Amino acid sequence: MKKITGIITIAVMCGGVALAAGDSPAPLGFSEQEGADQLALEAEFDRRVNPDNLDMWMQRLTAEPHHLGAPGTKTAAEAMAEAFRSWGYEAEIETFHILFPTPKERVLQLLSPEPYTAALVEPAIEGDRTSEQADRSLPPYNAYSADGDVTGELIYVNQGIPADYEELERLGLDVKGKIVIARYGGSWRGIKPKLAQEHGALGVILYSDPADDGYAQGDAYPKGGHRNQDSVQRGSVIDLPLRPGDPVTPGVGATENAKRISREDSESLLKIPVLPISYNDALPFLKALDGAVAPDSWRGALPITYHVGPGPARVRLKLAFDWTLTPAYNVIAKLEGETYPDEWVMRGNHHDAWVSGAADPVSGMVALMEEARIVGELARAGNRPARTILYAGWDAEEPGLIGSVEWVEQHARELDAKLVAYINTDGTSRGFLNAGGSHTLEPFFGQIANAVMDPHKGITVGERRRKLLRLIGSEEQKKALDAGIAYPLSALGSGSDYSGFLQHLGIASLNIGFGGEGGGSQYHSAYDSYDHYVRFGDPGFLYGAALAKVAGRATLRLANADILPFDTEAFTRTVAVYLDQVTGLADNMRKETAEHNERVRDGIYAAVADPSEAYVPRIEKDPVPHLAFAALENALAKLRVSSAAFDEAAKNLAEGGANISKRQQAELNRLLYRMERKMIRAEGLPRRPWFVHHIYAPGFYTGYGVKTLPGVREAIEQRNWQEANQQIDILANILTDIATHMDQMTTLAEDLSD
Amino acid sequence: MKKITGIITIAVMCGGVALAAGDSPAPLGFSEQEGADQLALEAEFDRRVNPDNLDMWMQRLTAEPHHLGAPGTKTAAEAMAEAFRSWGYEAEIETFHILFPTPKERVLQLLSPEPYTAALVEPAIEGDRTSEQADRSLPPYNAYSADGDVTGELIYVNQGIPADYEELERLGLDVKGKIVIARYGGSWRGIKPKLAQEHGALGVILYSDPADDGYAQGDAYPKGGHRNQDSVQRGSVIDLPLRPGDPVTPGVGATENAKRISREDSESLLKIPVLPISYNDALPFLKALDGAVAPDSWRGALPITYHVGPGPARVRLKLAFDWTLTPAYNVIAKLEGETYPDEWVMRGNHHDAWVSGAADPVSGMVALMEEARIVGELARAGNRPARTILYAGWDAEEPGLIGSVEWVEQHARELDAKLVAYINTDGTSRGFLNAGGSHTLEPFFGQIANAVMDPHKGITVGERRRKLLRLIGSEEQKKALDAGIAYPLSALGSGSDYSGFLQHLGIASLNIGFGGEGGGSQYHSAYDSYDHYVRFGDPGFLYGAALAKVAGRATLRLANADILPFDTEAFTRTVAVYLDQVTGLADNMRKETAEHNERVRDGIYAAVADPSEAYVPRIEKDPVPHLAFAALENALAKLRVSSAAFDEAAKNLAEGGANISKRQQAELNRLLYRMERKMIRAEGLPRRPWFVHHIYAPGFYTGYGVKTLPGVREAIEQRNWQEANQQIDILANILTDIATHMDQMTTLAEDLSD
Question: Which residues contact B37 (CB under 8 A, 6 or more apart)?
């Protein structure tokens, strides 16, 4: 007989925020005896984590530039594959062929009133050894900018997000035929040129304002860690929220002989040129603007009065790229499971960078390497995992999550069948544990956060995070703590390699890192270097080691659990919160629209406008109708019933002490991990069929930022009331299907209890 | 028979926010016939207002520096007195002798790490003609700084207000033995050195950060109107919220032979040196600071990372002053009333400036001159006012409201007996009507705001203000509009010449100006010039003319009303709002204190603190007891009853058509205007007996900023619970006395109705 305690301890043990450090509740999904074994295994895992190994790997991986296509990237991939093999893994390099542009020509000139040619370089810094490798590095550029040579008046659009274009309209201005300058921030960078293009701009300049990550935040590099006058944020501007991955092999793996569409036919490629610059390069351009003074919230920290323009500044932007099919080297290592070899748990981090990439991605990659080393050692010492564990070092993440997406597309059928969960990291630094993921894993992850100690504070990383939320968390996060959630997971949008797994295949995922006390970031700059990281990011690799313990535990527990620790209640509770948000969103928009329209009718905007400034008459908006939320409310009610019924059945199963075979366990486990598959729908979201998950998606106009219940939420935000009602019905059906799936789980659990 | 309609029209006519522009409800306090005459008189007044006269007077008054003691000041006073005489007034210059320091020596040096000597000058600007008069002007300094020669480490304290010292304590820092640098803003300037001194600083540097009034707000002078790199805010640092006026003649007029105390014995003088500088001068000092990075909200707009220090910057500040008894020339003009010569209405503005003072104070002074000219003309044409009108051009306002305060102290007995109300202005610019004052005058002022047209917008200045409040007003202001208040008056703190009248004698007061669209201020700088004002402040003097119409109406209506338009309901309603605020303040502090203490006990602050930074353990605060507010609630209930009873009696009196003699009217009027006297109490506020008003006072630690119900509110803010309960009782007695006074008014009105 095998008494499975874990499955019912969720409410009793996991939720309790009062768990003292050092408490060791039985891990969810384990029987009593095997739970004790697992905890002993984890203690042994912790003992073997050695920060020096992270340091050594970081030195190796950051020694040479290792962007997609760089010689150093292939070398690094081979070194990692070799290491995996030495630790007992089957390891291979799986290569894809990616359309990847690199710059041939970059020219940015202020033509008038005062001519200036942008330097577009990040000079070497004394004390930063790899900053001298500019000859072998990718210079500052935005990958998947179009080629182009455009000249026009300059206009400043703040962050270039939808709200900024609304403000421009109020100012009576537009970007048509102009070159836009936007500061980073407020959205994923690719949204900025996408919107500029939609509004008719000729080209786009992106720059890092010191207000956002420079001297206004803290001392600049090398005195402090923050972005300095020359530091540039590189990055992709492929249309990530439309579809990540290789732009010319939509939906299929970019193998050597894959069918490719033309660049012109690729929906995810821009038609206009875009270039990122430092604030030293941006200052002459911004100074040369006149016209309206920028609205308060548009002003950065440069010592000027920010003007919107357009003009009198005239600008030339000329960009040309080599568009080359470039090999991407995914490192895939496998340790076959002893009991359930066809149930897989995957752990990944990308290895490609823009330049040295010490923080992004190497700091996460080196934690993964240390985890894999120890898991391999433990297996050889007789603790082979029950399920198969896969480790991935992805290439081509920076250009658009391409290495992982192509791999996911190539192996979709097998992953759909076998992959239980995917655990991602992508850089880490000093500070607090930040985790997002599938809420079916929320209680599971809460236990893990409560099992790993903060390296400085004498409390667990879960406890420290809860104390932070008590101080500065949102009302929703505080409510979650009050409800006994040990670690309120955030929802996943996009921006790293979990996207293909979660949003394209419906595989439950986690994304984990530490941060918040890293003392300044050189995100996507040549100064994101080893020398920077060990001074500011994570001196001594203490938080890197803590990350290895968190991610290592998550991997091992998922690999070894008798019953997979997927939770119905946490999911149901979270969906209820999201539903409250979207109904509240519609209500607020209705109220604000009515108020706005009343103000227009009362002449308030016209009366209050400064008579010395241009005034564009404000117009009434279409009123917000009441949406047919009843279908969703009913589906949620059904979900609640089904979730509670499964909880009850699982409790009886655990307490009943039934004798469950491995086959029966596998049957129940298969239903459990396939619950997340029910959240997807083959047709996908409106206008972006690649994204099929209907609980989590990246925002179409925010990029990385998540939109939960995306079909409904974005239809409301876009004031598309008809689509909102359609999406409400679609989502109601999905929730009903999930409830039905839970009912199957309940039936099986009841059968097994008999 | 004389039917007085005005007195009951408050609720019916005045409150209505729907009053269309051009509506002319009978003015409050006038009989029907006389109301019509009054409106005709005001129409004639408006016709005679000529912006060219404001322009002419501004050119005359700003041609020479006219600070206290400057030759140009005496000339200006004489020219104004002569003009008043030419318009039919008895006019005199009443001279007081004021202790006034002017700089002999000003030295500010950064000694290390990089030596720098502050320039301390405002250079001439092309196109600003008076900026070339530095040889005849007062240089940048803070009047009533102590003499001193101090050297010490520098420390940045943000705005140097109480919350900043709490933050310093959390950082484990203090200012003892150091020289403090603080930016302007967040309080009246005198609070900054007062607090620095209380905390043991050796000296203080004040500077204007471009975040607050420089390039971050708009283009700097001369391109735009905002403060530039060299512009310095001069100003007094006498202890204004303790006691305004001459520092060595407390409580009595500073006549030539007045008894004077020594400087050492004056409580309102600082013991440490303080100097204001430009941001160009401040930058090397701020750059030389290291230590903790300044908290987010402390960061200004200079292109540096703001550090707190202390040090490594070491600073020397050496200041020496001539402390001279200086003649101050108050210009007082009188037009005797025809019917009630011993009931006075007074209208004032100061004429002294720091340099040219085009905006402050001349822009208000020239409106007053135009009003007086027209009132004189109208009197000669047969419309002599019923009451006596006094016009004042105050000297020595800038050093500490001294000209008006000495005059008030000198004439206290007569003013107490005769002065019905005081109407102040002190500079104006383009924009919205801003008015503060005694809430007994709120309905009266609402009618006036509804009678004057905005020069650009085709609506009244009252209507434009209401539309602004609908858009960006506080919840309290919106509620007031909902309740039908046409112009919600703000409460008066300090910062101009109404202070002596209102807060020392209990004379109902108004303070009026336009503003908000002035395009940048050169407050207390040499660049507050005619050339600046006519480009940015009020081109064409259109809002100056509107101000003359508002203040002229207020003066004439108060001078001519049959029954003085003091209102009991508006006062009672306002006190109820303030009482809500102070009980809410105590409740919030109780809640926040409990929350804070719980966080301390839970170790939240310690757990969340960055381990790489110094952490000062947070300690529990004394819990906030429940205060004995019942006495105040009961007094308010009584006030409500008495106020309603008077309203009823006044209505009956008006409708009854009783035949009321001038003597009877005078008796009722005397009770009406003396209602404000009941708000004062001879003992004054704790620790500052000069301030005797218990509804309105400047904040002891905010300076200009008002504290309503100050005895109670400040005791709570200072966590002095015993004093809070004492002040609750005192205020309850005052409200009860006011209710009793209203009862007397009711009895008289009932007697007259019989």
Answer: none
Q: Decide: residue A482, CB within 10 A, 0-12 exposed, 13-18 middle, 19+ buried.
A: exposed
Q: What is the location of CATH 3.40.630.10 in chain A? A: 6-98+326-459+493-564
Which whole number is the average pLDDT over A652-672? 87
Please state, in angstroms and rounded to a whole number, the distance separating the CA atoms of residues A207 and B253. 62
| Residues of B with Cβ-Cβ distance to A610 under 8 angstroms | 431, 517
Structure confidence at residue A658 (pLDDT): 67
Q: Which amino acid is at A208?
A: S
pLDDT digits (tens, 9 = 90+) for A389-408: 999 999 999 999 999 999 99
Determine the average pLDDT of the residues in A252-265: 96
| Burial zone of B47 (CB within 10 Å; 0-12 exposed, 13-18 middle, 19+ buried) | exposed
The CA distance from A736 to A694, in Å, is 13
B419-424/A307-309 β-pairing: unpaired
Helix H or strand E segment including B437: strand B431-437
Q: Do B471 and A219 touch (CB under 8 A)?
A: no
How many other β-carbons are positioned within 10 Å of the β-carbon of residue B472? 9
For CATH 1.20.930.40, list the domain ranges present in chain B.
Answer: 569-753
Task: Say if residues A154 and A291 touch (Cβ distance below 8 Å).
Answer: no
Mean pLDDT of chain B: 95
Query: Quick one: tokens of A317?
Result: 């932007």
* CATH number for the segment(s) B108-322: 3.50.30.30
Which of A343, A320, A494, A521 lies closest to A427 in space, CA to CA? A521
Range(s) within chain B of domains with CATH label 3.40.630.10: 55-98+326-565
Cis-peptide, bond into residue B193, ω within 30° of zero: no
The pLDDT of B21-41, averaged and rounded, is 82
- Going by the DSSP 8-state scheme, the letter that residue B622 receives in this structure is P
At residue A123, φ and ψ (nearest 5 deg) are -65, 160
Pick the CATH number of B55-98+326-565 from 3.30.2130.10, 3.40.630.10, 2.60.120.200, 3.30.450.80: 3.40.630.10
Residue in chain A nearest B466 by alpha carbon: A604
Per-residue model confidence as pLDDT tens digits over A354-379: 999 999 999 999 999 999 999 999 99
Cβ atoms of A215 and A240 closer than 8 Å: no
- Residue among B468, B605, B607 whose CB faces A608 most closely: B468
* pLDDT at site B353: 98
Does the structure show a pLDDT above 70 at B7? Answer: no
Look at residue A512 and give its three-state secondary structure: strand
CATH 3.40.50.150 fits A106-321, yes or no: no
DSSP string, A340-375: EEEEEEEEEEE---SSS-IIIIIHHHHHHHHHHHHH
Q: Do A611 and B517 touch (CB under 8 A)?
A: yes
Q: Among 2.40.128.110, 1.20.930.40, 3.30.470.10, 2.60.40.10, name the CATH number for the domain at A569-753.
A: 1.20.930.40
Across residues B136-140, what is the average pLDDT? 97
β pairing state of A509-516 and A419-425: parallel
How many angstroms separate the CA atoms of A583 and A706, rounded?
17
Q: Hey, what CATH topology would domain A6-98+326-459+493-564 get?
A: Aminopeptidase (3.40.630)
Instruction: Tell if the CB–CB gap between A305 and B463 is shorter than 8 Å.
Output: no
- Among B224, B456, B604, whose Cβ lies nearest the Cβ of A471? B604
Pick the residue of B305, B307, B465, B471 with the most A CBs within 10 A to test the interface with A by mutation.
B305
What is the pTM assigned to this prediction?
0.94
- Measured CA to CA, the distance from residue B76 to residue A630 in angstroms comes to 76
The total number of residues shown for chain A amounts to 754
Q: What is the mean pLDDT of the segment spanning A226-245?
A: 97
Which are the contacts of B585, defined by CB distance < 8 A and separation ≥ 6?
A: B713, B716, B717
